[in-house]
Recover the amino acids of this structure.
């Protein structure tokens, strides 16, 4: 039996996919609010540059590379699903999850060191934004990886292959958010 | 474009090539700040971020193949983001306002001497200039 999202469409778009796009619209408002409020406070507080100088650019750059690569495996999984190759799609989704795990591992290492150095969420305005924005993003990475594991488990059996594209769209959005967080938190010093 | 044709177009993309372009752009954004020139840093950090986001949205999310309603919905969310910035930024980025002054800390209202405090009703009815004039009068009256 197929889920209703594959048999019903609204405005010519499968309802499951449309729902993902609506989620992303609300995510733009959430992340957009965090990012623009950070930008305006950053411009209003030049002294934050001193605090921002303590973030580790190379770790941020490595994590950007990891997310870009995981986006590649996610889109290749979508391509495999379109070709009806559920097993290949599932394996590529597992690879994407490995990227998520690597990203979270690097983030944990980074945060542990920063907290040890005394840069906690209460250490200043910059650090409050840093932990809020990066933490919210990391939560999305974690949630996306869990959903991806669930989608991969059914894709492996060649079931519900349309979900591979849906979870991929979400994953690319998470990637785009990080593309903006990286220069804001790690490069602008 | 039919859904079938759109999918067919999507499959002809060289995703590995697009990923390689994204990695090159990442390297540029990391090297930019090393020049020590602020304008180059801003372009390589934020300009390159915009290009990377565009490449991911167009080629990985296939946004160019989506129906106009999706573009409209995403665009509307971005407009709200700009409105938020435009509406709040003047207060956040100004160094002083009607009843506050920004110190090295955050938005801070310094405590006023009791004799300079105005009655709450006066605060509501007077303009900032009138309030300041009233405070001047208080100071003069207490000085003499």
């Amino acid at each position: 039996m197929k889920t209703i999202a594959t048999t019903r469409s609204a405005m010519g778009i499968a309802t499951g996919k449309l729902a993902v796009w609506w989620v992303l619209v609300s995510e733009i408002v959430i992340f957009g609010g965090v990012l623009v409020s950070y930008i305006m406070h950053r411009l209003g507080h030049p002294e934050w540059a001193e605090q921002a100088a303590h973030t580790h650019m190379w770790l941020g750059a490595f994590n950007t590379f990891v997310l870009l690569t995981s986006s590649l495996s996610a889109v290749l999984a979508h391509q495999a699903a379109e070709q009806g190759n559920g097993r290949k799609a599932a394996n590529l989704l597992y690879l994407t999850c490995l990227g998520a795990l690597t990203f979270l591992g690097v983030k944990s290492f980074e945060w542990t060191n920063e907290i040890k150095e005394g840069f906690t969420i209460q250490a200043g305005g910059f650090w409050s934004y840093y932990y809020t924005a990066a933490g919210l993003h990391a939560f999305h990475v974690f949630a996306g990886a869990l959903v991806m594991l669930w989608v991969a488990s059914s894709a492996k059996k060649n079931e519900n292959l349309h979900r591979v594209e849906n979870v991929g769209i979400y994953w690319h959005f998470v990637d785009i958010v990080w593309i903006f967080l990286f220069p804001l938190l790690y490069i602008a010093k | 474009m039919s859904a079938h044709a759109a999918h067919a177009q999507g499959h002809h993309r060289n995703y590995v090539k697009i990923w390689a372009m994204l990695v090159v752009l990442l390297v540029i954004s990391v090297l930019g700040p090393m020049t020590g020139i602020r304008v180059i840093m801003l372009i390589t950090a934020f300009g390159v971020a915009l290009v990377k986001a565009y490449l991911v949205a167009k080629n990985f999310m296939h946004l160019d193949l989506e129906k106009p309603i999706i573009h409209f919905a995403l665009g509307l969310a971005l407009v709200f983001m700009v409105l938020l910035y435009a509406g709040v930024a003047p207060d956040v980025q100004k160094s002083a306002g009607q009843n506050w002054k920004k110190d090295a800390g955050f938005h801070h209202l310094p405590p006023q001497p009791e004799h300079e405090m105005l009655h709450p009703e006066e605060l509501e009815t007077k303009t900032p200039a009138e309030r300041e004039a009233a405070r001047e009068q208080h100071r003069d009256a207490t000085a003499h």
Remarks:
- Helices of chain B lie at 3-11, 15-31, 38-60, 68-93, 120-125, 128-143.
- The longest strand of chain B covers residues 101-102.
